[in-house]
Amino acid sequence: MNQTGYTKEVMKHFQKPHHYGRLKKYNGLGKVGNVICGDVLWLYINVSKNKKGGEIIKNISYETYGCVAAISTSSVITDLAKGKTINEALNIDKDKVAKALGGLPPLKMHCSLLAIDALSEAIYDYLIKHKKPVPEKLKERHRRIERSKKIIEERYKKWTKKGASTKKE
């Protein structure tokens, strides 16, 4: 790790991110963010059939507004998920993301969860749009993400109102 606490692999993904940008043709979109720390991630997937007739993530890209760790985890999740089946992609967890980057500082592990959540939401979006069965584990993850969004939005509203009232005084 360098003096910032980031590994060489993290810095490589930050300086030259893989699969960055918006896919022109996508059929699943995961939008996640954390208004408290400011990280926002939109992850695009294009699912299509492979030669065996199974569905794979043929193409994947992202747009991230965030710190070094947010950009690096976004980049590496695309490497880990591209070419995988839906089930294989759903088995990628935050620890696999962090391991692929050679580790993350403890205060930045939430970025690996942001990447996993974006991938999960993109897969959920794909399955819902195409009227395909959604695994129970993914439904639970989606509900957790939705609950978190509501909690964060509610806290953020209170915080901004408090900040606004302080400015007026």
Automatic annotation (TrEMBL):
Q: Which molecular-function annotations from GO does this UniProt entry contain? A: iron ion binding; iron-sulfur cluster binding
Stored CDD domains = IscU_like
Q: Which domain of life is it from?
A: Bacteria
Entry protein name:
Iron-sulfur cluster assembly scaffold protein
Task: List the Gene3D superfamilies hit by this protein, alphabetically.
Answer: 3.90.1010.10
Cross-referenced InterPro entries:
NIF_FeS_clus_asmbl_NifU_N
One matching Pfam family, short form?
A: NifU_N
Supply the source organism for this entry. Answer: Candidatus Portnoybacteria bacterium RIFCSPHIGHO2_12_FULL_38_9
Q: Where is the NIF system FeS cluster assembly NifU N-terminal domain?
A: 6-131
Q: What biological process terms from GO does the record include? A: iron-sulfur cluster assembly
